[in-house]
Amino acid sequence: MIARIWEGKTKAKDYQQYTMFMKERAIPDYKETVGFVKLSFLRNLEDDIAHFKLITYWENMEVIKNFAGADYAKAKYYPEDQQFLLEFEEHVQHYEVFAS
Questions:
Q1: Torsion angle of C-alpha atoms 71, 96, 22, 73, degrees rounded to 10
Q2: CA distances from residue 52 to 35, 62, 71 in whole angstroms, order as listed
Q3: What letter does residue 94 receive in the DSSP assignment?
Q4: How far apart are CA 11 and CA 47, in angstroms?
Q5: 41: Cβ contacts below 8 Å, ≥ 6 apart
Q6: pLDDT class for 20, splitting at 50, 70, 90?
Q7: What pLDDT is stored for residue 92 in this prediction?
Q8: At a CB cut-off of 8 Å and minimum separation 6, what does 19 contact?
Q9: What pLDDT does 63 receive?
Q10: Cα–chain center distance at 74
Q11: What is the greatest pairwise CA distance in the chain?
Q12: With contact defined as beta carbons under 8 Å apart, do 6 and 68 qualify?
């Protein structure tokens, strides 16, 4: 199993709205992908910044390539992210899951 980790930030005022966007748009997109296993969606507020971390779990790297494209290390963004995110990390991290 492979874990794919993405991190993002919004203004604190967008905390709830971005959470709803992720629940309604992004998470269903992940779940519809063949080979998707599960996810952990983490968030916290720190002063005036909201931090988000999305950890998705996939059967193997081929499944991730089917989801993310040939440049599978590149972060996947949605058009709606433009109205929320403060910066756009170019890449995500991948880890082999050896225990859970």
A1: -10
A2: 23, 26, 23
A3: E
A4: 9
A5: 22, 27, 52, 53, 54, 55
A6: very high
A7: 97
A8: 43
A9: 94
A10: 11
A11: 39
A12: no
